[in-house]
Structure formats: structure tokens, C-alpha cells
Specification:
binds adenosine-5'-diphosphate; GMP Synthetase, Chain A, domain 3; Rossmann fold; 17 helices; 24% strand; AMP-bd_C; seven-stranded mixed sheet; alpha/beta
Length: 547
Amino acid sequence: MLGQMQSQPLLISNLIVHADRHHHSTEIVSRRVEGDIHRTTWGQVAARARRVANALDSLHLSFGDRVGTLAWNGYRHLELYFGVSGSGRVLHTLNPRLHPEQLVWIVNHADDRALCFDMSFLPLVQAVHAKCPGVKHWIALCDADKLPADTGIPGLLSYEAWIGGATDTYTWPEFDENCASSMCYTSGTTGNPKGAVYSHRSTLLHAYGAALPDALGCSARDAILPVVPMFHVNAWGLPYSAAAVGCKLVFPGPALDGKSVYELIEGEQVTMAAGVPTVWQMLLGHMQQNGVKFSTLKRTVIGGSACPPAMIAAFNDQYGVEVLHAWGMTEMSPLGTVCTLKNAQVALPADEKMKVRLKQGRSVFGVDMKIVNELGEEQPWDGKAYGDLLVRGPWIIASYFKGEGGDPLQYDAAGRGWFPTGDVATIDADGFMQITDRSKDVIKSGGEWISSIDVENIAMAHPAVAMAACIGMKHPKWDERPIVVVVKKPGTEVTRDELLAFYEGKIAKWQVPDDVVFVDAIPLGATGKMQKMTLRQQLAGYKLPGL
Ligand code: ADP
């Protein structure tokens, strides 16, 4: 017997139709590349998304054709999110921080047919366009009068002129919810990047899941600031969850420095913000230097890499802002876990609660997870046993674009496919997962594992440390020994011996790094994560003390 409910495909166009009908006048605020603050509404975004759909028709782009974007977080990018996917094309968000050659590779691999870019990326587009023969239409996200006379890019259109010439009357097509809606390439620290292709169905299920109270907890009463870029895993899906709940959205554009982000949070009465730890480091630095506080911010989602305890403490104790530590991956749309406490943890003393907050958290309904040893045997959820973290669920990748890399899944006895995350983790009895390391970053010393995250977190708690990266160095006896590479905060001092002494009593003696290397900067990747491979290359001539 079948259920007798209406069978309606889960499509991204449903989201913008809903936001238009039910949250028409709710504001969308953007700091633009031009530098000014722009205000619009969900109603306007919906109308302009319909223009985008008509304008794509006028370029004769087919169903399933890829439309690339090279853009910061802003209202035009939001219109493309809905106009491109809603009309059945596939939105391909490109990371402008990638090396131009890598960008060219990705555009060609994805077969992008059109590419929309912010004017700040004009020089980049001028440098790469000739190497992307498949891109037939180049569209600059600006007014017609802002387009320079001779850019050298044949047929370059201005977005405003392009959509201005189209009507906002459009009927969103209905199609199979499993059709591709958007795609994003992994940053590919080894080998070529691989494409994760999201579907309408996976995106909508993720939008519901992410908005749940124990996940990101999005509500129509919120003003949400996604600092996490719209070019990285769809800004953690926030634009979609925002449309589902009808909250105000605030976009930072290219200005991600502490002062600009702080001004936007205060000026727009932001209640929730989301981003990677490096961005919050800049924000906290600005606030501490200027002695300012938040008046509306209630919570901040921090993920993408481990959130140092000092950061959780600063937000919580100094500013009264709840930190939601979250974990996910490009291959997971990206949300996997969020660290929201259960009643049992809320009742814990402050230091115990802090230990829980440091964990990456509980799985959002829709994501199942388990930890396994090298034989694939499931490990207990006791908070101590660790293993490779595997996940499955309807918004988790089944295969990469064009089948690259073969079948990525591992199969259990029942034949169910699990995606190996490449992370090593523990899970406690209450289901809180904690990443101990990425499997490639873990340090193996004398047959035991040392968590680079633990070593970094301790260094980061020292008042003179701005950033710390722990890496393993080859050792003839122990296989590997950890060292910690440190960037000092401006105007502060700490010596090697003082920092090593700081580890005493905080971790086992054999886990204390063998050395401290002070550097001016730690290389960061295109998504703001520390690039340990590059760091290792930079330290090629380094020798451990005593060797
Ligand atoms: P990449 O940077 O490799 O393209 P993603 O942006 O998809 O990949 O990042 C996924 C990886 O980032 C995870 O597998 C994990 O190693 C790391 N990560 C994400 N969130 C956290 C977190 N809260 N704590 C620790 N590591 C995290």
C-alpha cells in the first residue's frame, strides 16, 4: 500500500517561492564589492531570480548546463543561487582563492558554459578566460555603466543589463528532485580537485536538517551573517535554510577583516554568524583591541577546522555568545555534526562543559556515523576508542563528478555504503563526536598517536600565540615527533622554552612537542585552513633538536 500524500519533488525553486510568499519584505543586506551597503528583500531577490532564469533561457543554456560563479557573499550571488538551480541549470561556485591554473582546470573539468564574476575578479578573469574555451558567456556582476570599455573579454555582459532585459514573469519548471542543482570542488590538497555534485533533494533535506534547533537553529526572528563564503559548500547551506525559515540575511562581501565584520554585526543587529576559526580570530582581535562588545549576537557557528578552546572561552565568557562548534565536509553538503548540549551536559560544571563544547558534536538527523579500526570493525562509543570516521545519509556524496577516483564508499556486511571522511575521531556515550585528527595529519610516535589538534589547542591558549600548527617530523627512533610552528601576536613575546614549559601538566610528557619554530605566517589554503603540506615543504631543511 502506498501513502496518499501529494508527491511533490523537493526543488530549490520551492524555497524561493516560499520566501517570496511568506517573507516578502524581510531584508537581505549586502556589503558590496563597490564598498557601499545595499538593501533588498526576499521578494526582490525572488523577482530578480526569475529574471536570471529568463536571461539564462535567452542565452539558450540547456537544462543541466553548468553556470560558474566567482563571487563574494552578496545579493546578486543569492539571486544566482535560486535563478540558476531553480531553472534546472547547475550552479558551480568557484573558489577565487585557488591558483589561476587550478581554476582553469576546474572550469574546464566542470564544462562551465557561462561564468558570472564580481568586478574585483576582473583581472583574474582577464588572465584565464582564453584558457576556458567552453565558457560561451562571461557576465560581470555590476551595472552596465561600471563595465570598462575594453576588457579584452569577448561579449562581456553586465549582469544588470542582462537581467534588466528579461522579465520577472517565470514559471519554475518541475523536474526530478534527484537532478543536479549545484557543485563544488574539494580543495584537493593532494592530486586534482574532485567535484561534489549536490541534488535538489539533497539540498532541501540539508536545508531542513541544518535549520533544526539543535543544529544551526535558524528562525524567522534571526538575522544571519554567513561569513563562510558562498563559494565554499554553498556557505554551509545557509542561503537555503534562510529561505526556508525566512530570516534576514546579512552578507559581508569581500570585507572579512575584524572591523568590517564587527560593524556589520552591530549595524544590522545580527543574531547568528557562521565562519571558520581564522575569521573569528580577526574579529576577536579587533574587539579586544578596541574594548567593544556585541549587543545582539547570540551565537556563532564555528567549523571547517577545530575551534581552539581559547576562542570558545572568549566568545562565551567575555561576550556572552554561544559557540556552536560544527563539523562537516564538501562531500557532506557540508553539515555532519553540531555541538549543541543536551540537558545532561548543560548541568555540568563549567570546566566539564567546556570539554564537551570542544567536541565537534552530535550528528544532525540525516547523518549517521561510526568509527572503525583498520579492519573495518566498529569501535565503541566510549569517548576513548578512536577510529576512522565513516558517514552515510541522503546529503552525503555517493560518487564524485565524472566518477573520478572510482567508488569512494566502503561497504558494510549489509551492503550499505559509508563515506570515509579521512578524519580520525572518538564518539562518547551521548553521541558527541570529537575529531582527534585528519588521518594524514596525525603524528605517530613510538607506535602511539599524538593528536596535532591537542598540541595546537594548548599553544593557542598561550596569550602570546596568534596561530599554531603542529606537524610530525621524521625521527629515527620514534618514527615521528611533533613540533609546533607558531605565529606570535603582534607586540607580545614568548620564548621556545617558555612555550614548551606551558605544556607541562596539560598533556602526557611524550606528547609535548620536541621544538617550537617561530614563523611570520602559517600558509593558509583557499578556505582559510592551515596548509600543513606547504608548511612541511617550507621546513624542508629543518632538523629536530639533538639529531
Ligand atoms: P577541504 O578543505 O579538504 O576541501 P572541506 O572544506 O570539505 O575540505 O573540509 C573537511 C575537513 O575539514 C574535515 O574532513 C575535517 O578534517 C575538517 N574539519 C571541518 N570542520 C572541523 C571541525 N569543527 N573540527 C576539526 N576539523 C574540522
